[in-house]
């Protein structure tokens, strides 16, 4: 690693120059609400509350996985015990030769 500049491996966001340039321009305070200049297009906007019921408690973080993802390591396609073909089981078997 000798002879290499550590800043070549770091994002420019972490550099001092970037931080200084962020505050180089003037930042004006918003002021009191009476002095706001709100455009008519913004005044015309009406924000409605969200549709539907708001559920109690923390929202679910995990997605409901389909059966082939639940145990991907041990997943085997279903196999018919009558005709031994994959993709259906004995109840939905449509193989007429061995369907007795
Ligand atoms: Zn079958």
Automatic annotation (TrEMBL):
SUPFAM superfamilies per record: Retrovirus zinc finger-like domains
InterPro entries given in the database record = Znf_CCHC_sf
Among the GO molecular function terms of this UniProt record, one is: nucleic acid binding
The protein here is known as CCHC-type domain-containing protein
State the organism's lineage. Answer: Eukaryota, Viridiplantae, Streptophyta, Embryophyta, Tracheophyta
């Amino acid at each position: 690693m000798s002879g290499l500049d550590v800043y070549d491996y770091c994002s420019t966001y972490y550099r001092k120059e970037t931080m200084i340039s962020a505050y180089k321009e003037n930042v004006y305070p918003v002021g009191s609400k009476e002095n706001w200049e709100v455009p008519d297009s913004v005044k015309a906007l009406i924000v409605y509350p969200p549709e539907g019921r708001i559920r109690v408690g923390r929202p679910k973080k995990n997605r409901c996985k389909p059966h082939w993802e639940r145990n991907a390591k041990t997943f085997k396609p279903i196999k018919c015990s009558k005709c031994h073909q994959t993709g259906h089981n004995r109840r939905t078997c449509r193989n007429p030769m061995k369907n007795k």
